[in-house]
Every structure is written in structure tokens, then in C-alpha cells.
């Protein structure tokens, strides 16, 4: 009985030693983008400045953790005029709220190589629960996470005043991420 227990513990230890946790973000191979709709027309943009601390082991993704911090002053909304507008008080108000963040509280396996990170998204000082589905794949010694999720901008007070009219700018914004980890 004791030999079986020791054998089982040894096998468990070997499995743990072979597991690889990924956590070093390759910023030059990672992107964080968005698609909004203005008068029904999709408009693509990106968050050019962000940091991501992501720890995930493909063998145990449910033990993963992520924190993404976005420098909102680095938002690219497609033109110099739009970039200046989104930094203003009606949109991100970067003087008072320079960063947005997502901090995961759990990762759930959905099956078929799909997962979902749940946590708090904080924008303009308001924190709300958010779910971010993603896929996970290993490629050439790196771990690739790709996902898309909807964000309701008005829930965070993004686009107030005349910009609050959802016939001009839709409430739902698609957030897209592609993170490459070593």
C-alpha cells in the first residue's frame, strides 16, 4: 500500500515538473483592439499602450490569473481628431482616469480549446464584472491567447453628452485581444 502511495506521489510530481507556466508577455507580438459602430459603420481602433501580467499553465488553465492595465492616453481611434476626442472628459477623461484595468478572479474551461476569464473591469473609476472568452494554443514555444468580448460603454460613462446617443455611437463595443506569452 505504501509503495502504491509513493508511486502515485512520484508520478504526480513528475507531471507537475513537466507542466509549463507561461507568463512573459511578448509586447511586440500582442495586441489589444476595439471595434465600435458609428452610425452603423464599424470603426476599428487600438489601445497601443498596455501591460499584461498573465500567468497560465495550459495543463491547468483554471489556476491562471491575469491583470491587464491600459494607458488610455495611448488610444488610437483612427484619426488625430478622434484620438484627442476620446481622451476628453466625455469619453475616457484621461486626466482624472488615465488607466483602465481588468483583473481576473477565475478561469473556466469551456471545452474544445475554449476558456473564459471572469473578473473586474475598471474604467473611469467604475468596476463591473466581466467575462472574457478566449482560446489557447501553443506555437513555437509560445502560448497564444485570442479572445473577443462585448463591452457596454455607457455602463462606464464612456461617451456622455451628445455621444450618449446610441444611434450615433453604439453602446456595445467589441474588445479584441491577442496575447503572446513565453
Radius of gyration: 20 Å
Widest β-sheet, arrangement of strands:
3-4-6-7-8-9-10-1-2-5
The CATH architecture can be given as: Beta Barrel
Uncertain spans, ≥5 residues at pLDDT below 50? 1-19
Helix and strand element order = HEEEEEHEEEEE
By CATH reckoning, the class would read: Mainly Beta
Report the principal-axis shape. Answer: elongated
Polypeptide structure, described:
This protein has 182 residues and is mainly β. The chain has a single domain, classed as Lipocalin (Beta Barrel). It has two helices and ten strands; from the N terminus they run αβββββαβββββ. It has a ten-stranded antiparallel sheet with strand order 3-4-6-7-8-9-10-1-2-5, covered by helices on one side. β7 (114-123) and β8 (126-139) form a beta hairpin. The longest helix has 17 residues, at 2-18. The protein is elongated. The termini are far apart.
SSE map:
Layout: H1 2-18, E1 31-38, E2 41-47, E3 50-55, E4 65-71, E5 75-76, H2 80-87, E6 99-111, E7 114-123, E8 126-139, E9 142-152, E10 172-181
Antiparallel strand pairs: 1-2, 1-10, 2-5, 3-4, 4-6, 6-7, 7-8, 8-9, 9-10
Amino acid at each position: 500500500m505504501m509503495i502504491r502511495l509513493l508511486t502515485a506521489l512520484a508520478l504526480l510530481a513528475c507531471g507537475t515538473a513537466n507542466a509549463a507556466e507561461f507568463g512573459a508577455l511578448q509586447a511586440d507580438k500582442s495586441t489589444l483592439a476595439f471595434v465600435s459602430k458609428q452610425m452603423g459603420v464599424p470603426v476599428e481602433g487600438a489601445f497601443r499602450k498596455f501591460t499584461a501580467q498573465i500567468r497560465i499553465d495550459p495543463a491547468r488553465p483554471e489556476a491562471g490569473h491575469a491583470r491587464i492595465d491600459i494607458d488610455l492616453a495611448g488610444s488610437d481611434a483612427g484619426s488625430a481628431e478622434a484620438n484627442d476626442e476620446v481622451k476628453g472628459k466625455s469619453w475616457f477623461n484621461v486626466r482624472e482616469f488615465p488607466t483602465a484595468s481588468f483583473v481576473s478572479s477565475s478561469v473556466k474551461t469551456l471545452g474544445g480549446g475554449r476558456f473564459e476569464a471572469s473578473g473586474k473591469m475598471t474604467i473611469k473609476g467604475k468596476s463591473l464584472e466581466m467575462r472574457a472568452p478566449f482560446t489557447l494554443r501553443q506555437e513555437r514555444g509560445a502560448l497564444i491567447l485570442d479572445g473577443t468580448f462585448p463591452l457596454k460603454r455607457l455602463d462606464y460613462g464612456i461617451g456622455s453628452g451628445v455621444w450618449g446617443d446610441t444611434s450615433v455611437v453604439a453602446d456595445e463595443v467589441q474588445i479584441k485581444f491577442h496575447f503572446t506569452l513565453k
